[in-house]
Write a structure and sequence with these properties.
By secondary structure, the protein is an all-beta fold. The chain has two domains: about 45 residues, no CATH class; about 80 residues, OB fold (Dihydrolipoamide Acetyltransferase, E2P), CATH 2.40.50. Helix content is about 0%, strand content about 45%. The chain has no helices and eight strands. A hairpin with a 7-residue loop joins β5 and β6. The model has no long low-confidence stretch (mean pLDDT about 95).
Length: about 130
């Protein structure tokens, strides 16, 4: 099992030299230098990604699939879809954690998100932090 600090699956190529990891491995170890053992679970502590900030009104919330759309409710080409994962922090106006089901159309939110997006309509990106304003 190879995951990041939030429990999301990652690929082996995401792990770099000098990165912190927690590893669960077999006690059966070779006598070679360095010793080798079978790893069962590795948790890699990835650096915080670069992000952008968007402040806009919620158009729709898809709780079941973890999507939040913001922008112009009458024009899908003027909207943005944010993918919400287990790692996404969702806060109310007082910085208290809330669930995705507390988000409603019309609310003003400040979203910290990935600095990349898909070329779809509406474009999609990953939300890191959502705060009600």
């Amino acid at each position: 099992i190879l995951i990041n600090q939030f429990g999301d699956p990652i690929s082996l190529c995401a792990i770099r030299r000098d990165m912190w990891v927690n590893a669960e491995f077999s006690s059966a170890m070779t006598r070679s230098t360095p010793p080798q053992s079978k790893a069962y679970r590795i948790v890699a502590f990835l650096p915080n990604p670069l992000f952008r900030v968007t402040t806009d009104r919620i158009v729709s919330v898809d709780v079941q699939n973890g999507f939040l759309n913001t922008g112009n409710p009458d024009d899908e080409t003027d909207q943005m879809r944010f993918v919400i994962s287990r790692a996404t922090e969702i806060l109310d106006q007082n910085d208290n954690p809330i669930g995705i089901s507390s988000l409603q159309p019309g609310q003003l939110v400040r979203i910290e998100h990935a600095n990349f997006q898909t070329a779809s309509i509406p474009p999609q990106t990953t939300a890191y932090r959502i705060k009600l304003i």
